[in-house]
Amino acid sequence: MLAHRGPRTIDLDPAVADERRLAWVYLSRVVQGPCAPLSALIESVGPVEAARAVRERDLPESLRGPTDQRRDNDCAARDLDAIAALGGRVVTPDDSEWPAWRMLGLAQLETGRDQDGAVPLVLWVRGSRSLIDATERALAVVGARCSTGYGDRVTGEITGDLAARGWTIVSGAAFGIDAVAHRAALAVGGTTIAVLACGVDKPYPAQHDRLLAEIADVGLVVSEYPPGTVARKHQFLARNRIIAALADGVLVVEAGLRSGARNTVKWARRMGRPALATPGPVTSAASVGCHRMIRDGEALLVTRACEVIDEAGPLRLSLPDASPTSNAPAEALTGTRATVYATLPTIGARLPAALAAQTGLPVPEIRAALTELELAGLVGLDDTGWHRVPPGRGTG
């Protein structure tokens, strides 16, 4: 059985927590992006032992190539100083701020099919908001870099309305639709998250330096790449999976036939997130990609914020074969959710570490399952830990 990654940093001895954080940061720089074999190694032996194996080249063949180039570049302490100087931080899977519920979609992808689909090792963050709180109800908005006046207007109306209703707008800070979406959220005092394909200390594009600073003031600027990393073409495609993962759905406003926005839609669909697209004039080359996705059934047609909410929210936990009037929705649970729920005592409560010890499941998976169960009204949290909620009471 695979050894789990251990409890959250807040539950660890400070010295152990520091050692693990340095290991996570070192590994993040070694691979700089998704690396499914390294993620599997960390899952089996933990970040500290994985870091040792990389340094000493005590690795399976599948990992030697991806780690050889930078395995001697151990500047984890310097990276942590660099992000702290920006007023930022690194968030690891050990931290309570880690969006385990969101990353579950990536964790369940088939690595053979989606080589870039691995869960990011860490997330580098600028901004004071909690990453997990900021993504509680979120929509990813992407589209053409060379957007038209029509696309800008539609983007501003839909995202501004959603942000005013409390939705977080997630995008990539690129020219065109991305920038309009961010600015529309900022204009109504809403929250927005920019996910970069470079270090959070390297504004990209450079002309959006001020925009990214504004986003960091009220929202978050996020990247899986360590400070100092410059943007490269392949990193944008990998970045798109994080944009999709952090949101309840993806909306495309204007996309050409070969638009990168379709890549973000692909990730959303792989993770079971709704993909949405707005139509444009049939004569507009800027909307050809949206029309193709709608016609091929890759995206649902939406034209206003209320239609987006109909498809992407409110967030609900799907319980197969459970009647809305059922008095026992727990009977429809499967997989990890069923295991965790069954392990909770009928009377009393348990902490995630205790549930992990009983089930053999990793603590991050336990926490993600508990979050799902809480959303379904099946469990609650108090000072003693997680407990079952009697049928009909819910968590409210």
CATH topology of the domain at 329-388: Arc Repressor Mutant, subunit A
CATH superfamily of the domain at 329-388: Winged helix-like DNA-binding domain superfamily/Winged helix DNA-binding domain
* Rg over CA atoms: 21 Å
Arithmetic mean of pLDDT:
87
Low-confidence residue ranges:
1-10, 315-328
Total strand count, please? 11
Percentage of residues in helical conformation: 40-55%
Strand order of the largest sheet: 1-2-6-5-4-3-7-8-9
What is the chain-wise order of helices and strands? HHHHHEHEHEHEHEHEHEHEHEHHHHEE
Strand content: 5-15%
| Helix-and-strand structural type | alpha/beta
- Give the biggest beta sheet: 9 strands, mixed
Shape summary: globular
Straight-line distance between termini? 37 Å
Q: Helical region count?
A: 17
What would CATH call the class of the domain at 329-388?
Answer: Mainly Alpha
CATH architecture descriptor of the domain at 329-388: Orthogonal Bundle
Record keyword descriptors for this entry.
11 strands, 9-stranded mixed sheet, about 400 residues, disordered N terminus, alpha/beta, two-stranded antiparallel ribbon, DNA-processing protein DprA
What this model shows, in words?
It comes from Nocardia aurea. This is DNA-processing protein DprA. Belongs to the DprA/Smf family. Residues 325-379 form the DprA winged helix domain. It holds the Pfam family DNA_processg_A. By secondary structure, the protein is an alpha/beta fold. It has a domain at 329-388: Winged helix-like DNA-binding domain superfamily/Winged helix DNA-binding domain (Arc Repressor Mutant, subunit A, Orthogonal Bundle). It contains 17 helices and 11 strands. The chain has helices spanning 14-31, 36-45, 47-55, 61-68, 76-85, 100-107, 131-134, 149-164, 177-187, 209-218, 233-245, 261-270, 288-295, 305-312, 335-343, 352-359, 363-375; strands at 88-91, 123-126, 138-143, 168-171, 192-195, 220-223, 250-253, 275-278, 300-301, 379-382, 385-388. Strands 1-2-6-5-4-3-7-8-9 form a 9-stranded mixed sheet, with helices on both faces. Strands 10-11 form a two-stranded antiparallel ribbon. Helix 12 (261-270) links the parallel strand 7 and strand 8. The longest helix has 18 residues, at 14-31. The radius of gyration is 21 Å and the shape is globular. The protein starts with 13 loop residues before the first helix and ends in an 8-residue tail after the last strand. Residues 1-10 and 315-328 have low confidence and may be disordered.
